[in-house]
Write a structure and sequence with these properties.
The protein has 27 helices and 2 strands. The protein has helices spanning about 1-5, 10-15, 30-55, 60-75, 85-95, 100-110, 115-120, 135, 150-165, 170-180, 185-200, 205-235, 250-255, 270-280, 280-305, 315-360, 385-405, 420-445, 450-460, 480-490, 495-520, 530-550, 560-565, 565-585, 590-600, 605-625, 630-665; strands at about 250, 265. The longest helix is centred in the middle third of the chain and has 46 residues, at about 315-360.
């Protein structure tokens, strides 16, 4: 009997960290709606522009600055904010800030990519993805007839994806949280982090605002020099004035004499420095060690005739592309498989340990009837409705995908099999979602299997390229289940999420179309006006094209076949596993393992070096100066810094838009 009533202490600790509330509230209001609109109109375009220019985003910072502004306004209005309000605001802002229109801008670039053209892929990209007529693309506008079908498909798939949030993911949450009563150990951490400001709104705690303001001032100052001056001068002069080079300085021509086949770049973006302060020190140390190993390995691989495509004088980006083709494409796949295997091993080891502890604790018998018993005033969705949403969304994905690939695209040989689409939606998705949800529920770890989509496409016998661009019903709802648990812990009704989605959906769609149109009207994307995209988009297209070329029709030797080297995959897999075993034997931090593996994957010095420097400053400088508060300070400071850059970038973007508008009106 004692065994039956004994409770696992660790599980109880997680449950008590943030217990389920006694009552639930909507969390929606005019304030949350207006702040979400503020993010959509100001932060989202700044996010897009910053990413195109400097390769940095501000999605998390946009949410933080919105919440902090909301808290300060409420404080001055003598209003005490509640956790559901803060959580729903976070949720809405997170969705809106990603509606930047980069997807559309990337589409018009993909069908014009020189790398894909050389691979012979452009002719196989379907018109329902993006029109390929040069005369259409030269107009730099989405508001013409050839773009109608791609835009309609984008709206339809995003609407189905919005509904899909409340389908199988919700069923998995109810199974894990209500039926099996799993603790979801990471959900309380996320809920407490997002709603900490709600608890502070009724107190005289102002350190967050002070630290955020300091970061904001620093961000505005740096952003003015780094981004605003080039933007404003580009609107006035024919050539922008850049005090600091964007996105990096290419030093490869100076180092290739003693470091052949090694891309060497240095970045002056301070965001990398502050990111290194926030990221785990072990991960940054591992990435730096991996960079050193790469510095040594690349010249050796070149002299051994493995990195044979590299030539002196081609520069950093061309060096990266050449190395990917010769070695790092397959090496990356091997590391990816190793990381997945290590992740599964870690998860299942923790799972077995947790299950043994729960069995010893005398866990009560599972009551499956709880699945159909909604929580008290929690705003639960009927299970039958959630299942219908899942069946509807999956059926739409399967039908739309099969029709687009096999009837709206030129066929070369075999059609893409219907049974495989059905397998994705009705077999693989439920299985991987259930496994991942249980892992999240018991040990707080996400589980996924890499390269399943790509491998099944290649092995299906399909010929063409349309399958790579159509919606596929392959999802993992483990993270969505954690989202519902987090919602519950904050005291927000589940119906609030559904209402919030319908409110922000038109904002997201309008933002996607408006911002992409505005940016494209300024200049070609990519171009010299958008340095980061100009440097990296072609490289990204090249990397994607290597995979897409695997299904090209004909018996020609495709780029994928040239880059795919099974022996290199096995070498990378073996190296990573041995490395993990050695580091685990010495009980070194897991972040060091993943950081080292990341560093070995053809590290880019312009990002790793400043991040590692920031990690050193944070660990051995700032932690001593600020003591135990430093972990809190650094997160809020980085949010303020990124928000400051975003605001000054948005201001400078206004000058560019006004300048272009004046020029067009004058013409």
């Amino acid at each position: 009997m004692a065994k039956d009533i004994r409770e696992d202490k660790e599980l109880k600790e997680f449950r008590d960290l943030m217990p389920r509330p006694d009552h639930f509230e909507s969390g929606l209001g005019w304030g949350t709606f207006l702040m979400a609109l503020f993010v959509g109109l100001l932060m989202a375009p700044a996010q897009l522009y910053m990413h195109l220019v400097a390769g940095v985003g501000m999605s998390d910072a946009a949410k933080w600055v919105t919440v902090i502004l909301y808290v300060e306004v409420a404080r001055r209005a003598f209003k005490e904010l509640k956790r559901p309000e803060i959580f729903i605001l976070f949720y809405m802002c997170g969705a809106v800030v990603h509606a930047t229109g980069e997807n559309l801008l990337m589409r018009q670039f993909i069908v014009q990519s020189e790398s894909l053209r050389k691979m012979g892929l452009i002719q196989y990209i379907p018109e329902w993805y993006a029109p390929k007529d040069p005369q259409v693309l030269a107009q730099r506008t989405f508001w013409i007839r050839p773009w109608a079908v791609p835009l309609i498909l984008l709206v339809v798939t995003r609407f189905v994806a919005m509904l899909d949030h409340f389908g199988l993911g919700y069923v998995m949450y109810r199974l894990a949280a209500d039926v099996e009563d799993l603790p979801f150990p990471m959900a309380p951490v996320g809920a407490m982090g997002m709603t900490a400001l709600a608890d502070a709104s009724s107190q005289k705690e102002t350190w967050r605002w002070r630290v955020f303001s300091m970061g904001g001032v620093a961000g505005v100052a740096f952003g003015f020099v780094y981004l605003a001056i080039p933007n404003i001068t580009s609107a006035i002069f024919t050539e922008p004035i850049r005090i600091l080079p964007i996105p990096f300085v290419d030093l490869t021509s100076y180092t290739e004499g003693f470091l052949p086949a090694m891309p060497m770049m240095i970045s002056f973006n301070l965001a990398f420095l502050f990111q290194g302060m926030v990221k785990p020190f072990g991960a940054m140390l591992g990435a730096f060690v991996g960079l050193i190993v790469t510095l040594i390995a690349n010249p050796i691989l070149h002299h051994a005739g493995i990195l044979k495509g590299w030539e002196p004088g081609i520069g950093a980006i061309a060096t990266i592309r050449s190395n990917i083709m010769d070695f790092y494409f397959s090496f990356h796949l091997g590391l990816l498989l190793a990381v997945a295997g290590i992740g599964f091993l870690t998860v299942f080891t923790s799972f077995r340990k947790k299950k043994r502890e729960m069995d010893e604790a005398g866990r009560p018998k599972v009551e499956w009837s709880r699945l159909f018993k909604p929580g008290v005033d929690r705003g639960d969705i009927p299970i039958w409705l959630a299942i219908c949403i899942y069946l509807f969304s999956t059926t739409v994905y399967v039908s739309l995908g099969y029709w687009l690939v096999n009837y709206r695209s030129t066929l070369y040989g075999l059609r893409f099999p219907l049974w495989l689409l059905l397998f994705y939606g009705f077999v693989y998705t439920p299985l991987i979602s259930y496994v991942s949800t249980r892992m999240e529920g018991m040990v707080g770890m996400f589980v996924n299997i890499p390269f399943v989509r790509e491998a099944t496409f290649i092995l299906s016998g399909y010929k063409g390229a349309a399958i790579w661009f159509c919606p596929i019903p392959m999802h993992n709802y483990g993270a969505q289940a954690v989202q519902f648990r987090t919602t519950e812990l904050t005291g927000a009704r589940f119906t609030s999420l559904l209402k919030a989605e319908f409110i922000i959906f038109p904002i997201m769609i309008a933002g996607t179309f408006m911002f992409s149109q505005f940016i494209w009207q300024i200049d070609n994307v990519p171009s010299e006006l958008f340095p980061w995209a100009n440097e990296f988009w072609e490289l990204q297209a090249f990397q994607k094209g290597l995979i897409w070329s695997a299904t090209l029709p004909g018996e020609v030797h495709t780029p994928f076949q040239e880059a795919f080297k099974p022996e290199v995959i096995l070498i990378a897999l073996g190296m990573a596993v041995v490395l993990y075993a050695v580091l685990r034997h010495f009980s070194l931090p897991v972040f060091l393992v993943y950081g080292l593996i990341y560093g070995l994957d053809q590290s880019l010095p312009h990002a790793i070096l400043p991040q590692f420097l920031g990690a050193l400053i944070g660990r051995y400088g700032c932690r001593k100066w600020f003591g135990e508060r430093w972990p809190k300070y650094r997160v809020v400071f980085l949010a303020g810094f990124t928000a400051g850059i975003g605001l000054i970038t948005m201001l400078s973007l206004g000058f560019v838009l006004m300048s272009k508008s004046v020029i067009k009106l004058a013409v």
